[in-house]
Amino acid sequence: MPLYIFYGQDSFSLREALRELRASLDEDGSLMANTLVLEGRQVQPQELVSACSALPFLGAHRVVIVEGLLGRFQGEGRGRRAALGPWESFVQYAGQLPPHAHLVLVEEGTVERGNPLLQALAPHAQVREFRPLWPEEVTRWVVQRCQRMGLRLSPQAVALLADLLGNDLWALNSELEKLATYAGGEAVGEREVQLLVAPARELSVFALIDAAAEGEGEAALRLSRQLSAQGESPLHLLALLARHYRRLLLARYLLERGASERELSQATGLPERPLRRLLRQARRYSLETLRAAYRRLLEADVAIKRGQVAEEVALEELVYDLTRLPAGPAGQRRPGRGRAGG
């Protein structure tokens, strides 16, 4: 079946599956020249039909990857024909793709069950959902990954890695590769994990994130300045803060809907101890306050990337604003752009 739909929050496994699919089709080494990637938020049905209908150049297969098309149809509560509009004709075409064409729809993140395009295409497609791993699944994943790498990791080291990184498979894979290079075939225990995966600088990063989320302004600003002085990239720190506040926002949303601890663990990708810390922080703020905080993070990211403000200044202003978030379920004051004091 030449139509594939890959979606879900586990972007690492999704991207790995996409690489494996392309490798399986690259029989003669010509697939790179016969691969087209399209932006789903802009592509039109006829453009996609033309891309799939084009013959491969000196090869047997042509791969067309569309990023983010399903997201255009999220939240459509209308009937199928009204929701799909001009894409109805493409659904009919997708049921009879030419044998040389392999169309892959990729969506990183959650896709609603009622997504009309997903429902319409599913009968013609290989559909794979890549959900976040449960904490116990993370341990099995690490063990299997070690076997593939030829890395001998002690059970205690596996548990420590899972505790430190949760179900962030990108980070886990990167750290396992680092450990495999360091070990050179030798066994790896907790000591090596502590040495290579969780140095004092990383612990300071976690401390900065916690201080910001718990409103400890003085400590958060001090840690922010220390980390910048040590050479940490402000953009890297901003990305870690954004990930944490995404988790806070998700946790608060699920708490208000009575989610169980197991459901919260799966959704956030955190084991018991860090999950409890996250929930404590999420309970400090209202959902609207956390939404405002996340908007502030996006504003800082845009300001840095557009060169509107120096990276270090933007980070310090951001940390200052985050620590001033109004605590309590009825918090109303939105964080504003303000220069942090020296």
Write out key terms for the chains shown.
342 residues; alpha/beta; Rossmann fold; Helicase, Ruva Protein, domain 3; Zinc Finger, Delta Prime, domain 3; 3 domains; five-stranded parallel β-sheet; two-stranded parallel ribbon; 16 helices; globular
Describe how the helices and strands are arranged.
Blueprint: E1 3-8, H1 11-25, E2 35-39, H2 45-53, E3 62-67, H3 80-84, H4 87-94, E4 101-108, H5 116-121, E5 126-129, H6 135-149, E6 152-153, H7 155-165, H8 169-183, E7 187-188, H9 190-196, H10 200-213, H11 217-229, H12 234-256, H13 261-268, H14 272-282, H15 287-305, H16 311-323
Parallel strand pairs: 1-4, 1-5, 2-3, 3-4, 6-7
Helix pairs in contact: 2-4, 6-8, 7-9, 10-11, 11-16, 12-14, 12-15, 12-16, 15-16
Question: What would you note in describing this structure?
Answer:
By secondary structure, the protein is of the alpha/beta class. It folds into 3 domains: 3-129, 3-Layer(aba) Sandwich (Rossmann fold); 135-196, Helicase, Ruva Protein, domain 3, CATH 1.10.8.60; 200-323, Zinc Finger, Delta Prime, domain 3, CATH 1.20.272.10. It is built from 16 helices and 7 strands. The strands form 2 sheets. It has a 5-stranded parallel sheet with strand order 2-3-4-1-5, sandwiched between helices. Strands 6-7 form a two-stranded parallel ribbon. α2 (45-53) links the parallel β2 (35-39) and β3 (62-67). α7 packs parallel to α9 (190-196), α10 (200-213) packs antiparallel against α11 (217-229) and α15 runs antiparallel to α16. The longest helix is centred in the last third of the chain and has 23 residues, at 234-256. The protein is globular, with a radius of gyration of 23 Å. The relative contact order is 0.09. Residues 330-342 have low confidence and may be disordered.
